[in-house]
C-alpha cells in the first residue's frame, strides 16, 4: 500500500480536526501549587489539542509532512494558515517556559521529547516559513534532556508504550544526525551498550495495550546504529528465525476488539508501527500484512483518530 492523494487528504483532514480540539484531554502535568491548576490551552498554547501533548506534537508532524508532500491541496493551504497562527513566538515561548518549571523535568519522557525533535526536523524542510526557527529552542531543550537522561538509564525500557527507549532513540537519532553530533554519538553508543549482546529474541508480544513492538523497535534502532555488515550479523543472531516467519508473534497482526477503547485501540498503532519497522528492515511482505490490518481504521473513532495517522504515515513513507 502506498500513500495516495485520497489517503493524504483523509489524514490531513483528521489531524486538522484534532490538533485544535482541546477536550477530552489527558494531561501529563505535575502541579506545584494551586496556581498550576489550569486548562490545557493555557498550559500549552501550541500543543493543547489531540487528547494529549505528545499526540498534538505528532499530529503537527503529520500536518507539516503532508503539506510538504501535497503543497497544492486545499488541506495544505489550511495547514499553512493554522501553522502561522499557532507557531508564534509568544505561544512557543510559553511552551518553553513550561519546560523550565522544576516540576517538568520528566515531562513526556522520552516519547514526547523524540516527537518534538522529529517535528522540528520536519519544520526545517518548509522553505519560506520560520517554523523550524521557532521550534528550535524546544528541540534544543529536549536534546539537552536526552543527553542528561541517557547516561543515567542503566537499563533500557522495553515496554511497547510511550516509555520505550528504542523508539524514542530512533526518532531522536534522525534529528541528531543533522543537528547534534554529540547526541547522535551518545545514542549510538548507549544502544550498543544496551542491545549488542541480545540474541534469540522470543518476542513475547503483544500485550493488551501496546502500540510498539519491543523487538522490532530495538532492531530498527540497531539498524541505524551499526554499519550494514555488523547489523546484518546482529540481526541474524537477534531474530534467527525471521527468514522463516518466526517468532510467529511478530508476523501476525494484532486483533483489535474495540476501537472505541483508547487502550485497546493502541493495537492498531502496533500494527502500523510494526509495518514501519518491517519496511525499514527490508521485509515488505510482513509490513503489508500489518498495514492492511489497520490502515482502514486510522480514522473513524477519536480514540485512535487523534494519533494513528502519524504511525500510518511513518510506514507509508519508508523509502519515499
Description:
This protein has 320 residues and is an all-alpha fold. It has one domain (5-29, 38-316): Alpha/alpha barrel (Glycosyltransferase). The protein contains 15 helices and no strands. It has helices spanning 5-18, 40-43, 53-69, 74-86, 89-99, 111-123, 131-149, 165-179, 181-195, 214-225, 228-238, 266-280, 284-294, 302-305, 308-316. Helix 5 (89-99) runs parallel beside helix 7, helix 8 (165-179) runs parallel beside helix 10 and helix 9 (181-195) packs across helix 10. The longest helix has 19 residues, at 131-149. It is globular and about 55 Å long. The two termini are 13 Å apart. The mean pLDDT is 98.
Brief write-up:
With 320 residues, the protein is mainly alpha-helical. It has helices at residues 5-18, 40-43, 53-69, 74-86, 89-99, 111-123, 131-149, 165-179, 181-195, 214-225, 228-238, 266-280, 284-294, 302-305, 308-316.
| CATH class (first level) name | Mainly Alpha
Give the fraction of residues assigned to helices.
Answer: 55-70%
| Basic shape | globular
State the secondary-structure class: mainly alpha
Q: What summary fits the major beta sheet?
A: none
- The number of helical segments is 15
N-end to C-end Cα span: 13 Å
Question: In sequence order, what are the helices and strands, one letter per element?
Answer: HHHHHHHHHHHHHHH
The CATH architecture designation is: Alpha/alpha barrel
- The number of domains: 1
Work out the strand percent: under 5%
By CATH, the topology is Glycosyltransferase
Runs in which pLDDT lies below 50 for 5 or more consecutive residues are none
Mean pLDDT: 98
Number of strands: 0
- CA-atom Rg in angstroms: 19 Å
